[in-house]
Amino acid sequence: MDSSSNQAEFDYLFKLLMIGDSGVGKSSLLLSFTSDTFEDLSPTIAGQERFRTLTSSYYRGAQGIIMVYDVTRRETFTNLSDVWAKEIGLYSTNQDCIKMLVGNKVDKENERVVTRKEGINFARECGCLFIECSAKTRVNVQQCFEELVLKILDTPALLADGSKGVKKNIFEENPSQSDTSTSSCC
Ligand code: GDP
Prior knowledge:
This protein is of the alpha/beta class. The chain has one domain: P-loop containing nucleotide triphosphate hydrolases (Rossmann fold), CATH 3.40.50.300. Helices cover 33% and strands 13% of the residues. It is built from six helices and five strands. The protein has helices at 3-7, 26-35, 56-59, 74-91, 116-126, 141-153, and strands at residues 16-19, 64-70, 98-104, 129-132, 184-185. It has a five-stranded mixed β-sheet, sandwiched between helices. Bound molecules: guanosine-5'-diphosphate. Guanosine-5'-diphosphate is lined by residues 22-28, 40-41, 43, 104-105, 107-108, 134-136. The site of guanosine-5'-diphosphate has 17 residues, from helix 2.
């Protein structure tokens, strides 16, 4: 078997979860990161998602958890501590799992209600990385995923269990387009 052709598929395989209230922009962030585009997605099950409890299988084995809120909707921020952080505490099986708090929709600066300082403070409380971004303008979107993955790569306990492939420059085909990093480790 030609092992080099298998390894060309990917360098590392990580399980990342993206959580947060409906409408905060989770799908848009993913789309923005993976396809360099932003489509105005129509919210589907708006209002229901926060009541849905993810089962433990979603969390099992995840190396990274991205907690997203909308900087223009305060309840999406408070729900992260009231609902989502508790769920992580209940179900996350990986103690070393890297968490990242993401404040999305910073393009709507004049509608902002959650300050950057509040985001930083909450991230510090729960020991998360923190970044503010916009799926629409793509500001800091690539940075968000890169910071998280780099931190995972920097955590030996998370590199066990078959996540490793052949190590090479994982961002060589997709160089960082943003130098306005706002992420930090608390
Ligand atoms: P999800 O339910 O968390 O997956 O959220 P969606 O990705 O479906 O986004 C909900 C709505 O917010 C959609 O109408 C998106 O077009 C819009 N949206 C998502 N991200 C942004 C952003 O960064 N800026 C603006 N202005 N709108 C966004």
